[in-house]
Amino acid sequence: MRELGRLFRNRRGGLGGVVVAAMLAAGLLAPAVAPYGYSTQSLLQRLKPPTAAHWLGTDGFGRDILTRVLWGSRVSLQIGLLATGLAVLVGTTVGGAAGYAGGPVESVLMRASDVFMAVPALFLILVVVALFGASLLNTALVVGFVTWAPVARIVRGECLTLRTREFVEAARALGASHRRILLRHVLVNALPALIVQATLLLGQTILIESGLSYLGLGAQPPLPSWGNMVVEGRQFLGSAWWVSTFPGVAIFVTVLGFNLFGDGLRDALDPALRSP
User: Fold this and answer.
1) Which pTM does this prediction carry?
2) Contacts of 168 (CB under 8 A, 6+ apart)
3) Are residues 186 and 163 in contact, defined by beta-carbon separation less than 8 angstroms?
4) Closest to 201 measured CA to CA, from 95, 100, 115, 87
C-alpha cells in the first residue's frame, strides 16, 4: 500500500495510471458503452464532423468514430496483454535460467537474446506475419516472440545480483532444490523490476500493433484497430481531419500513459530511484 501511495504522489505516475485505467475500462466496457455497432454503416452520415449524435464524427462509410476508437482499445488491449504475457514468460524463463546457472548456459542464452535484439523487431514481425497471415492471434504471438529479449536481460541482471544474497545462500544450505530457490527466492524478489518492464513493454506492443495494422498486417477490417483507422482516414485528411486524428491521438495518449505509469512504478518500487 505504501508503494501505491508513492505511485500516486508522483504526478507523472498518477497521470499515467489514470490513462491506463481509462484504456482498460474502454477496452473491457466497449460492447456496453459504445453508442453504435463498430461495423454499422450509413452512407447518409458519411464524413460528418463531430456532433451531438457522433461525438468524434464519422468515417468514409458513415461509421461512428467514437465507437470504433472504443473497440480499437479492446483490440489493442487483447493483443498487448497476450504479446506482453508471452514476452514476459519467455524472457523470465531465459533470463532466470541464465542468471542463476551462469557459465556456459548463461553465455548460450544471452547470445541468443543478443541475436534477437540485433535484428530489427519490425523486420522479423513483417516477415513472420507475411508468411503465416494476419490475425489477432498471429500478431500477438509474433510480437511477443520478438520482444522477449529485453525482459531476459533485465531478469538475468536481477538474478546475478540476487543469487549471491544471504537468504539464497541460507536456502541452499538448508537443502532447497535449484528450482525452489529460483522460483521462490530469486524470481520473486525480481518481480518489481519485471512489473515495471512489463508495463513499459505493454505500451510498446500496442504501438507495434498499431503500426502493423497501419500496414495492413494487424487486425483486419471491419474489426477496428487504431492503426487501420488512421490509414483509412489518410485520404480524407484535407476534408475530414477527424477520421485519422482521433485514433492517432488515442495511440499517442495510450503509449505515453503506459510509459509514465511505468516510470512511476519504477520510482515507487525501486528504493534507489524513489522520488523524494
Assistant:
1) 0.85
2) 162, 181, 185, 186
3) yes
4) 87
Q: CA-CA distance, 109 to 60, in Å (whole number)? A: 50
Q: Do the Cβ atoms of 236 and 49 come closer than 8 Å?
A: no
Q: What is the pLDDT of residue 270?
A: 62
- Mutual angle of helices 136-146 and 121-132, in 10-degree steps: 150
Using the Cα atoms of residue 140, residue 198, residue 204 and residue 152 in order, give the sign of their dihedral.
negative
| Residues 52-65: tens digit of each pLDDT | 999 999 999 999 99
Amino acid letter at 246?
F
What pLDDT was estimated at residue 155?
92
Q: How many CB atoms lie within 10 A of CB 176?
A: 15
Radius of gyration, alpha carbons of the chain: 22
Among 79, 71, 90, which Cα is nearest to 26's? 71
Amino acid identity, residue 239? S
